[in-house]
């Protein structure tokens, strides 16, 4: 017994050995272990340790929770996807001192892009890159407007972060000038790097951009930012190469509304309703060569396990889709809102489980849900 205690004390006071052990632990555990001692707090909080941990521990493919963020006037809510947990702080991002309130625009591999704004048609006044795991954030000052005779409009700000490729993130700023009603704009892109803390030109082009006078967030996937148009076509921009692309083949008929759009497992997915039954869905995936959308899963929510209470189909809405590689044990999952319940639905075995009961406005939809993954990445 004495030898075990002595060995533990030796490890606890040997900084090099302790570091090697802590690097093997998940980020969520390390945030709790900061309370063990001043040494542990100093070690786990150091940027060098955070960088080493981020490199050693790739982001999991499935999130552990998600945020609901409707507007800056309502506090984001935190909903766990893990069983037997209840980490639902009433104000999960209150460490950011913004008097106007905070709205989440995008989640990207553990980091959040947030803004200070009032509604979707108002250009945000401030932008933040946030790590909710470490409660750290950086305010991003946008580049000054281009000195052109034709006024430009801020169309989108998007976050790109892939810790398997780099410890640093990029913020992509899209501005446009031209006739907004026709959507044919002169687009200018500028890119902010957390490595240099500066902006650089990302190129310009004349193109159709999916914005009808309102500010749009983006979706990051495989080195590109993607924007989905109201008219069902997709614009994508390669950050490293500076190339633009458009997929003008709609993933669904123009009469239908996109029920969900996002990234999972390194692939883009889009969900549409098929037929007249609101409970029958297609999960579409974008081809790797951007050749167009194809149906990956056909989902009939009428086949849910019978122990789940019946709810009218009109109140069932997908929030996001979580995919998995074919050789992994994890099955693909749909996170749905049915009435005031959030449930996860296993596409393969058709089982479901309640995540939580939450009284929320019925207008809250998939655009308001942002995945959360633990990371110690520096911002």
UniProtKB/TrEMBL annotation:
InterPro entries: At3g26010-like, F-box-assoc_dom_typ1, F-box-assoc_interact_dom, F-box-like_dom_sf, F-box_dom. It holds the Pfam family F-box. This is Putative F-box domain-containing protein. Residues 105-229 form the F-box associated beta-propeller type domain. SUPFAM superfamilies: F-box domain. The lineage of its organism: Eukaryota, Viridiplantae, Streptophyta, Embryophyta, Tracheophyta. Residues 15-50 form the F-box domain.
